[in-house]
Amino acid sequence: MNDEVFSRKQNVPMTKEEIRYIALGYLDIVSGKKLLDIGSGTGSISLEAAHLNLSMKIKAIETSEEAFKLSLLNLEGLDCQKKKLKERVEFINDKAPSSRITETFDRIFIGGTKGDPSSVIKWAYELMDQNGVLVMNFITIENFTKSMEYIKNHDGFEKPEGSLVNINKLTDIGPYTYLKPNNPTFIIKTTKK
């Protein structure tokens, strides 16, 4: 899905389309049954996952009320009867970790932690099925470093793999074209032993 299909606001983060493709690939989203999207922002990961896997159930949690409302707007705007998004995708306005989510998931995506990745990863681990896949995106070095350290020191996770992705988009500048850079993004994948 192109970024343009999502309603956006400047202060609400969104996982950009090329990063979504990589993250959803790492999640092996087409083989998954249940996805938890933590720090869902505009809901772009949840909604694209729902479009790619028509049987997947998705819960998404976002602490920002403005982002939560934007997620609902995107759900409304992208829903079509054939894909039954409203029946399969639930957005929750709450801070992770949350007592409102207690079931388990075979896929978990972390797009935001509000600066506390260790407690969010710990909570995600408790909600993961055995052999469940965890994928995380970070744009800050600090959260990437804390997350890698936590995963490497946790006996319940497999050795992480990942990438640093730098995307530049063709953009017009007068009669010329240049490559406008997006934020570099760290992507980490691990599984629960």
UniProtKB/TrEMBL annotation:
The EC number(s) this enzyme carries: 2.1.1.196
S-adenosyl-L-methionine is among the record's keywords: yes
NADP in keyword set: no
Pathway: Cofactor biosynthesis; adenosylcobalamin biosynthesis
A GO BP entry: methylation
Top-level enzyme category: transferase
SUPFAM superfamilies: S-adenosyl-L-methionine-dependent methyltransferases (SSF53335)
Residue ranges of domain Methyltransferase in the record: 30-152
GO MF: methyltransferase activity
A Pfam family this chain is assigned to: Methyltransf_31
Protein name: Cobalt-precorrin-6B (C15)-methyltransferase
Alphabetically ordered keywords of this record: Cobalamin biosynthesis, Methyltransferase, S-adenosyl-L-methionine, Transferase
